[in-house]
């Protein structure tokens, strides 16, 4: 898109050649030459795909990995299934770990209860767990509050400032979840690093004259200390090689600007078009697939007449 809207013809030709030399294909987009459309604002925040099925889904992946590391998944599932129903909230019938696919409506309900359930799950931490539990709870708290406040029906500069502050606080406390953002290649390198560090420790023990003089308890204590050191180095490697640089997370930075320009997020939400699309899909299934457009329109019109 930038190739078609910025720079003179020579610059665009050089940029296109640069991409083609690196096997990156270029094509003309239908919106590229429309002067009323800006490449920087054509992608706008969407409640359904950016918040419910985007950020909240990613957040739950990090939370479940965090709970698994600290052996708290069973407690989380128990509390999750115990949530009572109340007006506007339908309780979940299954523990979180047993659900394989989530709808936008279910993720919306999840955003309302994840903070208290997660906080209750992290009660009574050990001494070593206090700092990571506190940081993880602050991270979840600020991201969920960001999502909830961004969906206000009416906004002022004060509420937009709250939205921006919650996002800043999330980025300040997200480090404990960084290791769960590791790519497959990073995890593969981490496994190789673990094997190498373990072999180095074995060679160190064999070459150390004091090793054979240690008692069984002393050897066990040293092994535990070395394993803790290896786990710490692996965790730091995963943190250093991981990031939160993906599209739906980046879109959060533009929420405040889009709210100022377009109003509340309901004005640009895809929830209503998605719901209308369900009726069109059903009408297509009822057609004979031959010149289906006319049949779809007739089925849709007939349904709306009966609803009136």
Number of extended strands: 0
Distance between the termini: 44 Å
Shape: extended
Low-confidence stretches: 1-5
| Rounded Rg | 26 Å
> Helix proportion of residues, in percent?
55-70%
Arithmetic mean of pLDDT:
82
Beta-strand percentage? Answer: under 5%
Largest sheet: none
Number of domains: 4
Number of helices: 13
Helix vs. strand class? mainly alpha
Query: What's the SSE pattern?
Result: HHHHHHHHHHHHH
Q: What's the short version?
A:
The chain is mostly helical and 308 residues long. It contains 13 helices and no strands. Helix 3 runs parallel beside helix 5.
Question: Which secondary structure elements does this structure contain, and how are they paired or packed?
Answer:
Elements: H1 2-5, H2 9-21, H3 47-69, H4 73-81, H5 104-121, H6 130-150, H7 157-173, H8 184-207, H9 216-241, H10 247-251, H11 255-262, H12 271-286, H13 292-307
Helix pairs in contact: 3-5, 3-6, 4-5, 5-6, 6-7, 7-11, 8-9, 12-13
Notes on the protein architecture:
The chain is an all-alpha fold. The protein has four domains: 1-42, no CATH class; 47-181 and 247-259, no CATH class; 184-241; 270-307, no CATH class. Helices cover 65% and strands 0% of the residues. It has 13 helices and no strands. The longest helix is centred in the C-terminal third of the chain and has 26 residues, at 216-241. It is extended and about 90 Å long. The two termini are 44 Å apart. The relative contact order is 0.09.
